[in-house]
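Handoff note, outgoing to incoming analyst
You'll be picking up this chain. Sequence as last confirmed:
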Amino acid sequence: MPWLPKTLPEEPPVVWELPLARAALAGIAATSNYVVVADRSPDEQSDIWRCVDAGSGRQLWQLEYSTVGNLDWGNSPRATPLIRNDRAYLLGAFGDLHCVRLEDGKVVWKRNIVIDFGAAQLKWGMCVSPVIVDDKLIVGPGAKDASLAALDPGTGKTIWKTPGRPAAYATFIAATFGGRRQLVGYDATTLGGWDIATGRRLWELTPENEGDFNVPSPIAVDGKLLVTSENNCTRLYGFADDGTIKPKPQAVNWDLYPDTVTPVVVAGKVFCGFGGELFCLDLGAGGKQPLEALWTQVDDAYLDHSSIIGSADRILVASSQGELLLVSTRADRYELLARLKMFGDDCELISHPALVGTRLFARDSERLICLELKQD
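Most recent structure output, in case you need it:
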C-alpha cells in the first residue's frame, strides 16, 4: 500500500506548478520521473496531453490533435492515461487512442476506437480507462460487434473483440473469482465477466433497478466483488466454483449509492465520500454483519465528488473543492487527522490525484501542482 503522511501542513507545500488551459476530468498518471496530464485547447477544438518532469515541473512534450464535438461536462479527456514501461496510452473523450513514447511523446501508433469499431458516441464521452492485462490493452468501445476489445499494446492491432451492448463509464478490473481469473466490468446495463484470452463473456448480471450509469469501478475483495451504483446501492457478491457470479448478493448497504465515486477498501472497511457524508462500512470483520455502517460523518467536503487514496491505517481524501482530508481508518469513529486547502475558493477538482512516494500531483482547471507531503 502507498505511504501516507501522519498529518498535513497548514499551508500547501507546493514544489512546483504548471499552468493549464482548461479543466479536464481525466485522472493524473505519474512515475518518479514523469507526470502525464490531460488538457484542452482554449478554443475547445483540440485535446492536449502534457508530459512534465516530475522533479522540476518542466514540460517535456505535448501531444495535440483536433477533436471537435459537444459532450456533456465539456469535451476534455475523461480516461486516466496509462503508463507502462516506456510507453503512455492516451484515450480522449471522442475515442482517439494514442500510444506514445514516454521519453519524447513520439506517436508509436494511433487509432480511434469509436470510428474503427463502429461505436456510437456516448453522452459523456469515452471514459473507460485503458488497462493492460496479460499483455493485452483492454478498451471498451461499446460497439455492437466490439463491446469490449483487446489490442496489441505494441502495435494497436486488434487481438480480439466481443459483441455486446453499448459502453458504460467504469474501468475494468482483472481478478480471480471462483478460481477463474477474468475481466470484470460493465456495459451500459449489466455487470459481467469476460475471458481474458478470448474475450468470451462468462456471465452477466442485470441489476434489480434500471437506470444506473455505471461509473464507479468494481472492486475485488478476497475473492468477492464489491460494486456500487446510484440506483442499486452497494452490494457484495460471491462466486460459484466455475467463476460465475452468484446473482443474489451476500450483503447490501442501501444508504451508500454514489453516482460517480469509486470506494476504497482498507483494513476490512469500505470508505466512500458521497452526498455530503464520508461512509465507513464493515466488510464483516469481528463477526459483524457485512456492509453495516460503522460510522458516517457529515461534511461539505464530501458533497459532490471525492477521490480517495488509502494506506494501511489512513485515507487521504481529495474533495471537489480542492481540499485534502487525512482520516484514520483504525478508529471505530470518524477521526480527522488533518485537512489542507490545495487550491483557491473557486476550485473544482474532479480529476483523481496521483501519489508517487511522498509527492502528490493534483490539478484544478487552471494548474497542475506538485505537493511534498513529507515533513521534517
